[in-house]
Amino acid sequence: MENFIAQKDLQVLDTSLSRRQLIKGVGKLGLLMAAPTLLTLSSKVFASVPEKSLNVYNTHTGESLKKCMFWFDGKLNPEAMTDLNRLFRDHRTNQECTMDPNLMHLIHNILEKTESRQMVHLISGYRSPKTNTILRKKSCGVASNSQHLSGKAADIMFPDRTMKQVQQAAKSLKAGGVGRYAQFVHVDTGRVRYWGPS
Q1: What are the residue ranges spanned by the domains of the chain?
Q2: What's 47-195's CATH class?
C-alpha cells in the first residue's frame, strides 16, 4: 500500500492554553457555565501522553496514512489532522469535514487496548448529508442524525482482531457510542450507548 501523504516535518503550533487562561477567556465570552465541561473533556480525552499516531487504510479509496502523528509533545498537530480530514472524507462525494480530534484519540486507545499491530481499516468516516440520505433509503440501520454527519464517528476494523474484540475494547473505554456489525465496528464520540451483538 502506498502512503497517502508522505510523512512531513512536524510543525506543531503551540495553541495550548493554561486552565486559568481558558477559564478567563470563556468567562469573558459569558460562557463560564460551559468551562467545567470543557476542562473535564479535555482532561479526560487528551491524556498526558506526549505522542499518538495512527496507521489508517481507507478501504474505499485505497489511500493510507502511516505514522500520522496527530498528537505531538502533548498537543494536537494541525497538519496531521488536515491529512486525517482528507483520508476520512466522504468517498462518495469527495467532501471533507473537520474530524473530531477526540475520535482519533478514541481509535488510538482502541488500538492500544486490542494490541493490534495492523493498520486501522476505515470503512466510513465523515458522511455528507447527501450520502446519509442515500444510505438511509437502503438500510434501516442508518440514523438521520448520525454522528458521521459531524465528523464524530468512524466504522473501523482491524485485520488481526475480531469484531467482538474491537467492540469490547471500545466499550471498555466508555467514551461514546459503539455498535458491532458483521464487517466493522462503529465508534463515535457522542453519548455512551451500545448496540449490536454483545
Answers
A1: 17-46, 47-195
A2: alpha beta
